[in-house]
Protein backbone atom coordinates (compact mmCIF):
# COMPACT_ATOMS: atom_id res chain seq x y z
CA UNK A 1 0.00 0.00 0.00
CA UNK A 2 1.31 3.41 -0.90
CA UNK A 3 0.61 6.78 0.79
CA UNK A 4 1.33 10.28 -0.54
CA UNK A 5 2.55 13.32 1.41
CA UNK A 6 2.48 16.93 0.15
CA UNK A 7 0.30 16.45 -2.91
CA UNK A 8 0.84 19.22 -5.49
CA UNK A 9 -1.98 21.56 -6.53
CA UNK A 10 -1.32 21.17 -10.24
CA UNK A 11 -2.74 18.05 -11.87
CA UNK A 12 -0.39 15.29 -13.01
CA UNK A 13 2.54 16.94 -11.24
CA UNK A 14 4.85 14.65 -9.35
CA UNK A 15 7.27 17.15 -7.82
CA UNK A 16 7.18 17.26 -4.06
CA UNK A 17 5.38 13.90 -3.77
CA UNK A 18 6.81 11.27 -1.45
CA UNK A 19 5.45 7.75 -1.85
CA UNK A 20 5.89 5.16 0.92
CA UNK A 21 5.29 1.60 -0.35
CA UNK A 22 4.99 -1.48 1.84
CA UNK A 23 7.14 -4.35 0.54
CA UNK A 24 5.21 -7.44 -0.69
CA UNK A 25 4.73 -10.32 1.74
CA UNK A 26 7.21 -13.16 1.71
CA UNK A 27 6.01 -16.05 -0.42
CA UNK A 28 5.71 -19.40 1.35
CA UNK A 29 8.09 -22.12 0.14
CA UNK A 30 6.72 -24.40 -2.56
CA UNK A 31 6.26 -27.99 -1.27
CA UNK A 32 8.69 -30.48 -2.72
CA UNK A 33 7.76 -33.89 -4.17
CA UNK A 34 8.59 -35.63 -0.90
CA UNK A 35 5.98 -33.61 0.99
CA UNK A 36 3.34 -34.23 -1.68
CA UNK A 37 4.09 -37.95 -1.62
CA UNK A 38 3.82 -38.00 2.16
CA UNK A 39 0.41 -36.28 2.04
CA UNK A 40 -0.75 -38.78 -0.58
CA UNK A 41 0.36 -41.72 1.58
CA UNK A 42 -1.44 -40.30 4.62
CA UNK A 43 -4.59 -39.93 2.51
CA UNK A 44 -4.38 -43.55 1.38
CA UNK A 45 -3.75 -44.77 4.93
CA UNK A 46 -6.81 -42.88 6.17
CA UNK A 47 -8.92 -44.85 3.65
CA UNK A 48 -7.04 -48.13 3.94
CA UNK A 49 -9.87 -50.13 5.46
CA UNK A 50 -12.28 -48.96 2.76
CA UNK A 51 -9.78 -49.82 0.02
CA UNK A 52 -9.19 -53.27 1.49
CA UNK A 53 -12.93 -53.85 1.72
CA UNK A 54 -13.42 -52.96 -1.95
CA UNK A 55 -10.52 -55.11 -3.12
CA UNK A 56 -11.59 -58.14 -1.09
CA UNK A 57 -15.25 -57.87 -2.15
CA UNK A 58 -14.63 -59.36 -5.60
CA UNK A 59 -15.84 -62.91 -6.17
CA UNK A 60 -16.65 -65.23 -9.06
CA UNK A 61 -18.00 -68.66 -9.95
CA UNK A 62 -15.31 -69.40 -12.57
CA UNK A 63 -11.74 -68.63 -11.56
CA UNK A 64 -8.43 -68.74 -13.38
CA UNK A 65 -5.05 -68.92 -11.65
CA UNK A 66 -1.95 -68.16 -13.66
CA UNK A 67 1.69 -67.53 -12.73
CA UNK A 68 4.25 -65.51 -14.63
CA UNK A 69 7.81 -64.24 -14.29
CA UNK A 70 7.31 -61.14 -16.40
CA UNK A 71 6.25 -58.97 -13.45
CA UNK A 72 9.05 -60.05 -11.13
CA UNK A 73 11.64 -59.27 -13.80
CA UNK A 74 10.58 -55.62 -13.62
CA UNK A 75 11.30 -55.30 -9.89
CA UNK A 76 14.11 -52.83 -9.26
CA UNK A 77 15.98 -51.32 -6.34
CA UNK A 78 15.62 -52.98 -2.96
CA UNK A 79 12.80 -55.18 -4.30
CA UNK A 80 14.91 -56.67 -7.08
CA UNK A 81 15.24 -60.48 -6.97
CA UNK A 82 12.98 -60.73 -3.91
CA UNK A 83 10.36 -62.79 -5.76
CA UNK A 84 10.42 -65.31 -8.58
CA UNK A 85 6.74 -65.63 -9.49
CA UNK A 86 3.72 -63.35 -9.74
CA UNK A 87 0.43 -65.26 -9.44
CA UNK A 88 -2.94 -63.75 -10.30
CA UNK A 89 -6.42 -65.12 -9.69
CA UNK A 90 -9.19 -63.69 -11.86
CA UNK A 91 -12.88 -64.37 -12.40
CA UNK A 92 -15.10 -64.78 -15.45
CA UNK A 93 -15.57 -61.00 -15.70
CA UNK A 94 -11.86 -60.24 -16.01
CA UNK A 95 -11.59 -58.91 -12.45
CA UNK A 96 -8.58 -59.78 -10.29
CA UNK A 97 -9.43 -61.39 -6.96
CA UNK A 98 -5.87 -61.66 -5.69
CA UNK A 99 -2.31 -61.08 -6.84
CA UNK A 100 0.73 -62.27 -4.90
CA UNK A 101 4.50 -62.46 -5.32
CA UNK A 102 6.22 -65.66 -4.21
CA UNK A 103 9.67 -67.21 -4.41
CA UNK A 104 8.30 -70.61 -5.47
CA UNK A 105 5.37 -71.95 -7.43
CA UNK A 106 3.01 -74.71 -6.32
CA UNK A 107 3.42 -75.11 -2.55
CA UNK A 108 4.26 -71.44 -2.24
CA UNK A 109 0.64 -70.60 -3.09
CA UNK A 110 -0.97 -72.45 -0.19
CA UNK A 111 -1.32 -69.26 1.87
CA UNK A 112 -2.97 -67.50 -1.06
CA UNK A 113 -5.42 -70.37 -1.54
CA UNK A 114 -6.28 -70.37 2.17
CA UNK A 115 -6.93 -66.63 1.99
CA UNK A 116 -9.33 -67.03 -0.93
CA UNK A 117 -11.24 -69.81 0.83
CA UNK A 118 -11.51 -67.68 3.96
CA UNK A 119 -12.75 -64.70 1.95
CA UNK A 120 -15.61 -66.69 0.45
CA UNK A 121 -16.47 -68.24 3.82
CA UNK A 122 -16.48 -64.96 5.76
CA UNK A 123 -18.60 -63.22 3.11
CA UNK A 124 -21.11 -66.08 2.93
CA UNK A 125 -20.63 -66.40 -0.84
CA UNK A 126 -21.06 -69.71 -2.64
CA UNK A 127 -17.69 -71.26 -3.57
CA UNK A 128 -16.64 -71.18 -7.23
CA UNK A 129 -17.59 -74.09 -9.44
CA UNK A 130 -14.62 -74.19 -11.81
CA UNK A 131 -10.93 -73.33 -11.57
CA UNK A 132 -8.59 -73.10 -14.55
CA UNK A 133 -4.87 -73.42 -13.79
CA UNK A 134 -1.62 -73.48 -15.72
CA UNK A 135 -0.18 -76.51 -13.88
CA UNK A 136 -0.89 -79.17 -11.22
CA UNK A 137 -4.37 -79.81 -12.59
CA UNK A 138 -4.20 -83.59 -12.82
CA UNK A 139 -2.95 -86.55 -10.84
CA UNK A 140 -2.63 -90.21 -11.74
CA UNK A 141 -3.61 -91.15 -8.20
CA UNK A 142 -5.68 -89.18 -5.72
CA UNK A 143 -6.37 -85.45 -5.74
CA UNK A 144 -4.32 -83.03 -7.80
CA UNK A 145 -2.15 -80.42 -6.08
CA UNK A 146 -4.34 -77.56 -7.27
CA UNK A 147 -7.50 -79.20 -5.93
CA UNK A 148 -5.76 -80.06 -2.64
CA UNK A 149 -4.90 -76.38 -2.13
CA UNK A 150 -8.65 -75.63 -2.14
CA UNK A 151 -9.71 -78.76 -0.26
CA UNK A 152 -12.56 -76.97 1.54
CA UNK A 153 -14.23 -76.49 -1.84
CA UNK A 154 -15.04 -80.16 -2.30
CA UNK A 155 -17.20 -79.56 -5.40
CA UNK A 156 -14.60 -77.45 -7.21
CA UNK A 157 -13.69 -78.74 -10.69
CA UNK A 158 -10.06 -78.09 -11.67
CA UNK A 159 -9.08 -78.01 -15.33
CA UNK A 160 -6.02 -77.05 -17.33
CA UNK A 161 -6.38 -73.73 -19.13
CA UNK A 162 -6.87 -74.27 -22.86
CA UNK A 163 -4.05 -71.93 -23.86
CA UNK A 164 -1.53 -73.85 -21.78
CA UNK A 165 -2.88 -77.11 -23.19
CA UNK A 166 -2.22 -75.83 -26.70
CA UNK A 167 1.30 -74.80 -25.75
CA UNK A 168 1.95 -78.27 -24.41
CA UNK A 169 1.07 -79.65 -27.83
CA UNK A 170 3.30 -77.07 -29.47
CA UNK A 171 6.25 -77.72 -27.16
CA UNK A 172 6.17 -81.38 -28.17
CA UNK A 173 6.45 -80.45 -31.82
CA UNK A 174 9.07 -77.71 -31.91
CA UNK A 175 10.17 -74.41 -30.37
CA UNK A 176 8.47 -71.02 -30.63
CA UNK A 177 11.20 -69.78 -32.97
CA UNK A 178 10.24 -72.30 -35.65
CA UNK A 179 8.88 -70.63 -38.79
CA UNK A 180 5.76 -72.83 -38.76
CA UNK A 181 5.01 -72.38 -35.04
CA UNK A 182 2.45 -69.63 -35.71
CA UNK A 183 0.71 -71.62 -38.44
CA UNK A 184 0.62 -74.72 -36.26
CA UNK A 185 -1.12 -72.88 -33.41
CA UNK A 186 -3.59 -71.29 -35.80
CA UNK A 187 -4.61 -74.66 -37.20
CA UNK A 188 -4.71 -76.18 -33.71
CA UNK A 189 -7.01 -73.35 -32.64
CA UNK A 190 -9.40 -74.16 -35.49
CA UNK A 191 -9.53 -77.77 -34.27
CA UNK A 192 -10.52 -76.73 -30.74
CA UNK A 193 -12.62 -73.57 -31.04
CA UNK A 194 -15.73 -72.90 -33.06
CA UNK A 195 -17.17 -69.52 -33.91
CA UNK A 196 -20.71 -68.90 -32.73
CA UNK A 197 -22.76 -68.50 -35.93
CA UNK A 198 -25.24 -66.04 -34.39
CA UNK A 199 -22.50 -63.78 -32.98
CA UNK A 200 -20.62 -63.95 -36.27
CA UNK A 201 -23.74 -62.98 -38.24
CA UNK A 202 -24.45 -60.03 -35.94
CA UNK A 203 -20.85 -58.82 -36.20
CA UNK A 204 -20.91 -59.09 -40.00
CA UNK A 205 -24.25 -57.26 -40.26
CA UNK A 206 -23.13 -54.43 -37.94
CA UNK A 207 -19.88 -53.93 -39.84
CA UNK A 208 -21.66 -54.04 -43.20
CA UNK A 209 -24.16 -51.35 -42.17
CA UNK A 210 -21.33 -49.17 -40.85
CA UNK A 211 -19.42 -49.42 -44.13
CA UNK A 212 -22.55 -48.77 -46.21
CA UNK A 213 -23.18 -45.59 -44.20
CA UNK A 214 -19.70 -44.48 -45.31
CA UNK A 215 -20.63 -45.05 -48.97
CA UNK A 216 -18.90 -48.42 -49.38
CA UNK A 217 -20.59 -51.41 -51.05
CA UNK A 218 -19.52 -55.04 -51.29
CA UNK A 219 -20.59 -57.85 -53.58
CA UNK A 220 -19.80 -60.56 -51.02
CA UNK A 221 -19.26 -61.03 -47.29
CA UNK A 222 -15.57 -61.68 -47.87
CA UNK A 223 -15.07 -58.02 -48.68
CA UNK A 224 -16.73 -57.00 -45.41
CA UNK A 225 -14.59 -59.39 -43.37
CA UNK A 226 -11.44 -57.71 -44.69
CA UNK A 227 -12.52 -54.55 -42.87
CA UNK A 228 -13.16 -56.25 -39.53
CA UNK A 229 -10.47 -55.39 -37.02
CA UNK A 230 -9.51 -57.80 -34.25
CA UNK A 231 -8.96 -55.05 -31.70
CA UNK A 232 -11.63 -52.56 -32.69
CA UNK A 233 -14.58 -54.86 -33.23
CA UNK A 234 -14.03 -57.82 -30.92
CA UNK A 235 -12.90 -60.47 -33.36
CA UNK A 236 -14.77 -63.70 -32.49
CA UNK A 237 -11.64 -65.78 -31.98
CA UNK A 238 -8.18 -64.28 -31.36
CA UNK A 239 -5.39 -66.55 -32.50
CA UNK A 240 -3.45 -68.25 -29.67
CA UNK A 241 -0.07 -66.80 -30.60
CA UNK A 242 -1.45 -63.26 -30.17
CA UNK A 243 -3.08 -63.95 -26.81
CA UNK A 244 -1.38 -62.07 -23.97
CA UNK A 245 -3.01 -63.80 -21.02
CA UNK A 246 -0.28 -66.38 -20.41
CA UNK A 247 3.39 -67.04 -20.84
CA UNK A 248 5.19 -69.00 -23.45
CA UNK A 249 7.86 -71.54 -22.70
CA UNK A 250 10.57 -68.89 -22.89
CA UNK A 251 8.81 -66.66 -20.36
CA UNK A 252 8.27 -69.36 -17.79
Summary keywords:
252 residues, 8 helices, disordered N terminus, alpha/beta, 5-stranded mixed beta sheet, Nucleotidyltransferase, domain 5, two-stranded antiparallel ribbon, disordered C terminus
Q: What features would you describe in this structure?
A:
There is one protein chain. The protein has eight helices and seven strands; from the N terminus they run E-E-H-H-E-E-E-H-E-H-E-H-H-H-H. With 252 residues, the protein is α/β, with parallel strands linked by helices. Among the domains are: 128 residues, Nucleotidyltransferase, domain 5, CATH 3.30.420; 43 residues. The strands form two sheets. A five-stranded mixed β-sheet has the order 5-4-3-6-7. The protein has a two-stranded antiparallel ribbon with strand order 1-2. The protein starts with a strand and ends in a 27-residue tail after the last helix. The N terminus and C terminus are likely disordered.
**Which series of helices and strands comes N to C?**
EEHHEEEHEHEHHHH
Quaternary structure annotation: single chain
Number of DSSP-assigned strands = 7
Main sheet makeup: 5 strands, mixed
Strand content: 5-15%
Radius of gyration: 32 Å
Which second-level CATH architecture of the domain at 33-160 applies?
Answer: 2-Layer Sandwich
Overall pLDDT metric:
80
Alpha-beta content class: alpha/beta
Strand arrangement across the biggest beta sheet: 5-4-3-6-7
Q: What is the distance, rounded to the nearest whole angstrom, between the alpha carbons of the first and last residues?
A: 72 Å
How many helices? The count is: 8
The general outline is extended
CATH topology of the domain at 33-160: Nucleotidyltransferase, domain 5
Helix content: 25-40%
CATH first level of the domain at 33-160: Alpha Beta
Indicate the low-confidence ranges by residue numbers: 3-9, 232-252
Amino acid sequence: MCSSVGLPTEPFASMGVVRMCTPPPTLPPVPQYGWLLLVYCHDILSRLEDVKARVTSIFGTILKMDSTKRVTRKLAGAAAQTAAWATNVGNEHGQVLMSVLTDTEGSGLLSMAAGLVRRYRDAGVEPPQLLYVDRDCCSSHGTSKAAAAFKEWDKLVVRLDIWHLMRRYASGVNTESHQLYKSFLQQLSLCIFRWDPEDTARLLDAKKRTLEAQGMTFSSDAGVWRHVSRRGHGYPLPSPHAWSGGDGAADR
